[in-house]
User: Fold these one by one.
Assistant:
Number 1:
Amino acid sequence: HTNGAVITRASQPEIGWLLRRSKEDESMIQAIINACKDTLTTNSIHGETNSNRLLILHLGTRDAAIEDYAKYYADSDVEFMNLPHIHATSRSTRMLRAIDAAQCRK
């Protein structure tokens, strides 16, 4: 975008079974940051100009493993949205849509 904002989506950080770092994930995060570096931005949260920091929003609950390994994502901040079990939330949304559709047909 012309203001330097970028929205990307990923399912999970690749921490692995033995809680090892993922160089691939770290490289992807750095590539996103590098793609935005030439754009003048203002961090609306802290009022910093040219902060070039990446805000990672994790929709699930706070997870110590993710939080610990996110420290290896340079120039990044992680915020947890604390949504309950995300798959249950998605299922509930589908059920509400089905009820709404059924009501519309009456």
Note: The first strand starts at residue 42 and ends at 43.
Number 2:
Amino acid sequence: MPFQLNQKAELQVNHLLSATIREHL
């Protein structure tokens, strides 16, 4: 189960990074 939790966390991090990058563009 920890793997699934890590996957969800990774998706959230990727989403935040994408939003941040878009803001800076």
Note: Residues 13 and 19 are 10 Å apart (CA to CA).
Number 3:
Amino acid sequence: MGKARGFLTPKAISNRIKSKGLQKLQWYCQAYQKQCRNENGFKCHILSESHRRQILLAGENLGKYIADYSCKFHSELFSTLSRSLGRKHILANTVYCEYIKDRHHIHMTATRCLALTGYVRWLGSQDKIMNLNQNFYNLSNRSSFSHSVFSSI
């Protein structure tokens, strides 16, 4: 009898409510693109046989996976910047917050840069942006998004 009302049970309703929205970054598996709800769920996931196989497969060519995720992150972040924020002066954190609203975004922890500050500094070293002062960065003319401004904070 309990199976007949499956989706109307309090437990099922609670699970659907919990599954909506963004969860904590520390419980996300980029290799599986799976979000776990809590520490115990994440622990069970990383100890599973299928996760271990996926990590072993990725570990054979880890540099390729990190480079691929870094490239995707860079292109998606800049498309978010050009699409929604246009040519305004804007903080890098604002652009990043806009980017992570997409539930299926590439997490920065899967890229070469582990923090936004490091990513902005890397953009500066690649001449994609130029430093206006200590905190603000302006995309240079070498980039297709020439008038947008980032901040390292």
Note: Residues 55 and 101 are 27 Å apart (CA to CA).
Number 4:
Amino acid sequence: MEIINELSRIRRISEFNETIISNLRGGYLLNNWLNNVLNVANGTMTKPNRMLLYSSHEGTLLSLMYAMGVANDRLVPFASSIIMEIFKDGSDHYVELLYRNDTTAPPYLLEIEGCQPCTVQKLLKRYGSMVVESYGQQQVVCCSTATRVICTAFSIIYLHLQFTQL
């Protein structure tokens, strides 16, 4: 049974752990997060909130974690969450990324490579090239046969996010 579980984990992780795949699957949500971070830092949120909450499947969390380079090659348990905190210290805004994968323990800090401490500007510079801003951009990238397989999944995520923002 252990071998079957390990093969299942490897198969599921392989859906997200290549750069082009993680960018296509997690890049649109990452773009949304970065836009919200920038709006908070600039004070331009159209609907100022103390918190934004997204609810999703573990695959969406995995794709976001791989797109951000903070995944640990483990499956995401049910009821897990990724929390991005934005706080101000002096004139700079900083970001911390937390991961909660156990409801009986507090979330732990995910280190963003090359971004400690992580200002909003460093975060945008670190991930700016990894975002997918539009369905059209996604389709251009998907023209290559190597990425065509995952484009259907991305299209579903994109349309779901568009629908939930209405």
Note: The first strand starts at residue 81 and ends at 89.
